[in-house]
Specification:
Strand content: under 5%
Structural class: mainly alpha
Distance between the termini: 38 Å
Radius of gyration: 12 Å
Helix content: 40-55%
Shape: flat
Number of domains: 1
Length: 47
C-alpha cells in the first residue's frame, strides 16, 4: 500500500485512539511529538 500522508504510518491514528481512551494522554495530546510531526504549521515545543 502506498503512503499518501504522514499519518499512514499508523503512529498518529494509534496515538489519537490512545488519547481518546486515556484522560492523561488526552490532556497532553497537543504537546506530543507524534501530533507535531503531522502538522506542518506547528513548531516543536521549547523546553
Amino acid at each position: 500500500m502506498e503512503r499518501t500522508s504522514k499519518t499512514d504510518n499508523n503512529r498518529y491514528p494509534m496515538y489519537c485512539y490512545t488519547a481518546s481512551k486515556n484522560d492523561v494522554e488526552f490532556a497532553k495530546f497537543k504537546q506530543n511529538p507524534i501530533y507535531h510531526a503531522v502538522l506542518e504549521h506547528v513548531s516543536p515545543p521549547t523546553r
